[in-house]
Write a structure and sequence with these properties.
about 575 residues; alpha/beta; Gyrase A, domain 2; Rossmann fold; 4 domains; four-stranded parallel β-sheet; 20 helices; globular
């Protein structure tokens, strides 16, 4: 069911018939007394024609055909349209059936992308789970989604590691603790300029295909990716080894990128480096910010690799959209890359290139989230603490649980709490990481929604109801029933918004509203104590709520336990 699209289409058809121009601007009503939806476009349309908005609204209502869709349309204020939906129309579709996109698109989603040779930390969480939730929504709508884990498996850090390996005499086969090895190499790199130069030379050797460097590099990659994959599985993220498309994949294509830029007359030399200067990217002082694609020593940069990746993804993968889920510090980088790709002809399919930036996870001090000693928190340690905190709550509330069952429930609650605590925030905003708020069973949290799901399911177990015997659809009668039905029917509109804009918090907000509406319905409308058609009707609404909560949480990559 497409509520917003249907209402918008009918209202805008009426605008056209009356000689008006503009969008209907349909949105969910802010309060129940304003109906279910509001159309706010009449005033702008009236203003264009220099007419009285209230009078125009009256004309629109008089000609608007919402028969069988809305039971009531009222004019409010200077020309808002308040729309109350018809319960019979709401009952025409199973709420948890996801509408399939027509036509479906091929969408490349570039997300997670940790730098290898060290363990994943909290800074990798947002890209990984935001990207994965968007992937899940797009796939559920029938789009062809191509995951691309653009891991950092190339560059200066690998020259540093290879040179330190050379110097220390260790074998990469013996590197049980890659993290400690990395820290030692980094310390050496920071303190010794001669070592720095050798490390940079090792990068060039690696990029040019030196056999020894390539063999040692491959060992580093295999060890690092095994750590990453363990965390993906622990997080319930859908990335697998087949989705790895690191910087190294494009190494052979990088000379061709430089040649193509040169042939288009886009390259300029600056201090020995090859750069692209575009007038639209200037500092406040008016200096043009260059896109450096080749260093003076012949080495390549992230920009070069990203340009090669755009060409591959548009020419070979035939992507209609390419989504990049990275932190907001890379906004300028991607604006420049997208502009250069367009000028150089690398966007073969004229794909939609979209950067989905996100803010920073902060500690209570308002600074990037770290340990008390100032170290970056490992992602594995963060998840372990979440599970431990959840286990304490489980044991307090359910002391009779089998220990193994309690630990599994704690895993589901803890991991879900961390993911939802992040996904429920506006992607572009920074947010303060708060354990107490995240693990709470009250408010807009994963534990609250998981508990809401188990509460609905308990209705069927307590009433010994055979869910399969219930009809699929029902017509809401009482007002709390109808309001719940309106919220259930809004799922597909919410998923459309997430798919189009890449904001998972829209889905989180929807699920929280659904759980709240169910609570209001549950308190006002007895289910198991009612009889006949009334009981059946309310049981169907309860089942639809449970199914939608479970589906919505699964699209966020969060599991739903059967009891809590």
């Amino acid at each position: 069911m497409q509520i917003k699209a249907t209402l918008s289409e009918r209202i805008e058809q009426t605008f056209a018939a009356l000689g008006l121009q503009g969008d209907a601007l349909v949105q969910a009503a802010s309060r129940p007394e304003f109906g279910d939806y509001q159309a706010n476009g009449v005033m702008a349309a009236a203003k264009r024609e220099k007419k009285n908005p209230r009078e125009v609204a009256e004309q629109v209502v008089a000609h608007l055909d919402l028969e069988g869709i809305a039971s009531q349309v009222e004019i409010a204020g200077p020309g808002f349209l308040n729309i109350t939906l018809d319960p019979n129309w709401l009952s025409t579709a199973e709420p948890s059936n996801i509408r399939q996109a027509a036509p479906a698109s091929t969408v490349v989603v570039d997300y997670s992308a940790p730098n290898l040779a060290k363990e994943m930390h909290v800074g990798h969480l947002r890209s990984t789970i935001i990207g994965d939730s968007i992937v899940r929504v797009l796939e559920a709508q029938g789009h062809k989604v191509l995951r691309q884990n653009h891991v950092g498996d190339w560059g200066t850090q690998f020259g540093m590691l290879l040179e330190y390996l050379n110097e220390s005499g260790e074998s990469s086969d013996e590197l049980a603790d890659l993290e400690s090895f990395y820290r030692s190499a980094k310390l050496r790199f920071d303190e010794d300029e001669v070592f720095q130069n050798r490390a940079r030379r090792a990068v060039v050797d690696l990029q040019s295909g030196a056999e020894y460097a390539a063999l040692q590099w491959q060992k580093f990659i295999e060890i690092s990716m095994s750590h990453c994959q363990e965390l993906y599985e622990r997080l319930g993220v859908t990335l697998t080894p087949e989705h790895i498309a690191g910087e190294s994949r494009y190494n052979d294509a990088l000379p061709g990128v430089i040649q193509a830029l040169a042939s288009k007359g886009l390259l300029q030399e600056s201090d020995g480096a090859q750069c692209v200067f575009l007038d639209e990217f200037k500092t406040k002082k008016g200096d043009i910010l260059p896109v450096i694609v080749q260093k003076s020593d012949g080495g390549y940069l992230y920009a070069t690799t990203d340009l090669a990746a755009i060409e591959y993804r548009t020419r070979d993968l035939m992507a209609d959209r390419i989504l990049y889920c990275t932190d907001a510090r890379q906004i300028l980088h991607f604006k420049q890359i997208f502009a250069v790709a367009g000028l150089a002809g690398f966007n073969h399919n004229e794909s939609s290139l979209e950067h989905l930036p996100f803010g920073t996870m902060l500690g209570s001090d308002g600074k990037p989230f770290k340990t008390r000693s100032g170290d970056i928190i490992k992602l594995a340690d963060l998840l372990s603490e979440a599970e431990d905190r959840a286990l304490k709550l489980v044991e307090e509330k359910n002391p009779d649980f089998d220990p193994q069952d309690a630990r599994e429930l704690a895993r589901i609650i803890g991991v879900g709490a961390v993911k939802y605590g992040d996904l429920s925030k506006n992607r572009t905003s920074d947010y303060v990481f708060d354990w107490d708020q995240m693990i709470s069973f009250e408010g807009n949290t994963s534990p609250y929604l998981q508990y809401a799901y188990t509460r609905v399911r308990s209705v069927f177990s307590r009433g010994e109801i055979n869910v399969a015997s219930l009809p699929l659809l029902t017509v809401a009668v009482d007002e709390p029933e109808r309001r719940l039905a309106v919220t259930l029917a809004a799922l597909n509109d919410t998923l459309d918004q997430v798919a189009a804009e890449g904001y998972p918090h829209y889905l989180c907000g929807y699920l929280y509203e659904l759980a709240t509406r169910f609570t209001q319905f549950y308190e006002a409308c007895p289910i198991l104590k009612s009889d006949g058609d009334v009981k059946t009707r309310r049981l169907v609404l309860a089942r639809q709520t449970a199914d939608t909560l479970q589906l919505g949480l699964s699209l966020l990559g969060i599991q739903t336990p059967e009891r809590m």
